[in-house]
Structure formats: structure tokens, C-alpha cells
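Worked Example 4.2. Consider the chain below.
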Amino acid sequence: MAIDSSWGAEADKERWNQKYETGNYLFGRDPIQFLTDHVDLLPKGTALDLAMGEGRNGVFLATKGFQVTGVDISEAGFKKAQVLASEKGVTLTTVVADLEQYTLPPNTFDLIICTYYLQRDLFPKIAMALKPGGMVLIETYTVDHLQYRPKFNRTFLLERNELLAVLPGLRVVRYQEVDTGQEAFASILAQKPTPTKK
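Applying the procedure from the previous section yields the following C-alpha cells:
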């Protein structure tokens, strides 16, 4: 497990470690439905799971044959991710890092996923880190979620249709905004174009 952490992130790391050190999986052990619904559209190969947490989505991808690297600030989350991976008979590469400082290598990944973590300056970096033909899958809460959690910091909520405008040069494959009556979120699957031969 690689370590790449800055002092400014220590409070954030401690907060998430405390959340994840409970016995249960905070967000469950099953992947998000948008991922399972569209897994057959995803290009196989290397996958990067940003803000992996306890690994529910990354482990699912590993069971589908992806080589998965997860990045998160919490070692406690990764411990649970590795337990889940072991139970499913797969392996993960994990990198403990502050995503506000983490550098995404260009043209490296076939798939990048980021769920329920919003850092807007990551969007263009994600686009650059995809291989041509690679895909990105993002899902997180929208401003409509405030009706269910009024104290949620609006800074970390998507505006309506925001995801449609923030992935430069990528083609939208699927997009949805959902209000379940208990939570509200948006999901997108987008693809980096393959250069056309002249």
C-alpha cells in the first residue's frame, strides 16, 4: 500500500477513518445500480476507483476482470475493501492519498469511476487520464438532496445537469437524475473519443 498524504488532509483522514472503523460497511457491500446496469458497456482493462472508500464498486469491477486501483484518504476504508476483495476472491491495488494533491497520469486508464465524492477540479483531470476509448462513470448527490438532508454542504452537491457540462471532449453515453423520495443524485457514463485515422 503506497502512502501519499499531506498534513492539510490529516483532519479529513481522521474523520473518514473513524467513520469506516465501525463494524458495518457504511455504504453497504453491493455496488451502485448504475454501475451494475451498465457494466457490459464498459471497456475492459485497467480501472481507477477515485475515493474508493470501503471498495464496494472497485471489488465488483475486479470480479468482472478489471485490474482495479483504488485511491482514498482512509486506510480504514481500504482495510475493509481488502476484506471484501478477499471474500470475492479478487485483488485490488490501493493508494492512500489526498485527492486534492493526487496526480492522475495521462492516457492511462480504460475506466475511471468516482461515486459520492465531488471535487470539481478532478473532472478535466479524469478526462485526461482516460485512454482513448476509455470511459468515466460518476454518481453523486444533487442540490435536490437538500430536501432530505438540509444541513448538507451545498458546495459538495451537483447542480442540475452539471455533469453534462464538466467532462470536456467526452461523449455522453448515459445520463440520469434520480429522486427516490429519500435521496437525489445524478449519474453519468461518458467516453473519451478514439482519434480518427486520416
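The beta strands are 2-4, 46-50, 67-72, 93-97, 109-115, 130-141, 171-179, 184-191. Residues 65 and 93 are 14 Å apart (CA to CA). Compare this with Example 4.1 before moving on.
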